[in-house]
Design brief:
The chain is α+β, with helices and mostly antiparallel strands and about 70 residues long. It has one domain. It is about 25% helix and about 10% strand. The protein has one helix and two strands. Strands 1-2 form a two-stranded antiparallel ribbon. The chain is elongated, with a radius of gyration of 19 Å.
Length: about 70
């Protein structure tokens, strides 16, 4: 008996990847969330760096790339 690590369930609504998913160069993924660009930090103080970092966290959370707790 053979159990596949990667399979699509009957009906095609769910695909399970239990092995390695390799995405080749040049491939295009669609439907994944993306975050707005965060400009490079030019902070010269810790306070400014914290502001820049928090802006990045907010963009990641708003894009659905980090869970809001």
């Amino acid at each position: 008996m053979y159990n596949a690590k990667n399979y699509t369930e009957q009906g095609g609504d769910k695909t399970v990847i239990g092995g390695t998913l390799e995405i080749k160069e040049g491939a295009i993924l669609i439907g994944l969330p993306t975050a707005l660009n965060q400009a490079d930090s030019t902070a010269t103080t810790i306070e400014d760096l914290v502001t820049d970092f928090n802006a990045l966290l907010t963009k990641l959370k708003n894009a659905g790339l980090m869970k809001l707790e």
